[in-house]
TrEMBL record:
Gene3D superfamilies, alphabetized: MetI-like
Principal location: membrane
Topological type in the membrane: Multi-pass membrane protein
Nucleus is among the record's keywords: no
Subcellular location: Cell inner membrane; Cell membrane
PROSITE patterns: ABC_TM1 (PS50928)
Transmembrane segments: 12-31, 59-85, 106-129, 149-171, 199-221, 256-275
Statement: the UniProt record of this protein carries the keyword Transmembrane helix: yes
Protein name as catalogued: ABC transporter permease subunit
Length: 291
């Protein structure tokens, strides 16, 4: 009887097996074909000598680094606010504040990029407000923050959009910390700031650091925000790969495969680093929370 039930369950999924096999074969054959191009040294040398690749790599790394610094500052501020309010307000109000801090996470990155362009563009909300208040005489006097080479709007978008993810990851660990520790610390004259600095932050730091690495890997390989808010030169690696694929001849598809393979290898290396960090530092967090 049990054998018949198992067969019925398996039989229900056999209908989609051919499509899964075909899609998997096409997907992995494309990935393997891309990786094969890395060993084409003439093609690799051609990409490096052009200069576009190295400039895009440096630009992508700089944008990712600046974005992750901003994400780290904003998320740490949000974590500290939730820590201060955790014992000062009721659960309902605390959940409302937490949902407000996490709300940007539910907005798609493409929509978030459009919202940032509308907010800080030369004809956007802030520039219009400054013009109405008489702070600037012309809309063109407002600084160019969108579609410029420094990537200010890209960095601000990632700082606003990615910070809630770090807050969510850290907060789930922070709420496990025993509240009695704070009561004991107050007996010895320790205020809440020093308790957070000396006790809470060392415990949440491994999760905080791992979350930042996850965000960094995502930003490094992200396409939509730099494509929407960036410029034609310099370009991030994903945008460079897309433009070579979409606008140039089919002869350049090999270059696209190499660039995509390098992006995959770099993000995979970051993922391995994240795994090592979680494995080495995560055990420490569990031991501290069990005390």
């Amino acid at each position: 009887m049990n054998g018949m039930r198992k067969w019925q369950r398996v039989k229900e999924h056999l209908g989609i097996l051919p499509s899964i096999v075909v899609m998997s074969a096409l997907f992995w054959s494309g990935i393997l074909e891309s990786f094969k191009q890395i060993f084409n040294y003439k093609l690799l040398e051609k990409i490096i000598n052009k200069g576009d690749f190295l400039n895009s790599l440096a630009y992508t790394a700089r944008l990712s680094l600046c974005s992750i610094i901003l994400v780290g500052i904003i998320s740490l501020l949000g974590i500290y606010i939730l820590y201060l309010l955790s014992t000062e307000v009721g659960p309902a109000k605390l959940n409302g504040i937490k949902m407000f801090l996490l709300s940007p996470m539910y907005i798609p990155y493409l929509l978030g990029g459009y919202m940032m362009a509308i907010l800080i563009g030369q004809s956007g909300i802030i520039s219009t407000l400054c013009h109405r208040l008489g702070w600037i005489h012309k809309m063109t006097e407002f600084p160019v923050l969108v579609n410029e080479s420094h990537g200010y709007s890209i960095i601000l978008t990632y700082g606003w959009k990615a910070s809630p993810f770090v807050i969510l990851m850290v907060y789930s660990t922070m709420i496990k910390i025993n509240n009695e520790w704070l009561d004991v610390a107050k007996v010895y004259g320790v205020n809440r700031y020093h308790f957070f600095k000396e006790v809470v932050f060392p415990i949440i730091f491994p999760i905080y650091l791992s979350s930042l690495f996850v965000v960094f890997a995502h930003i490094f390989a992200s396409f939509e925000v730099p494509y929407l808010l960036g410029v034609t030169y310099p370009r991030t690696l994903p945008v460079l790969a897309y433009e070579k694929y979409a606008r140039n001849s089919i002869a350049n598809r090999g270059e696209v495969m190499v660039i995509n393979s390098i992006i995959i290898l770099l993000t995979a290396g970051m993922a391995l680093l994240i795994y090592k960090l979680n494995k080495s530092l995560g055990e420490r967090v569990e031991l501290e929370l069990e005390k």
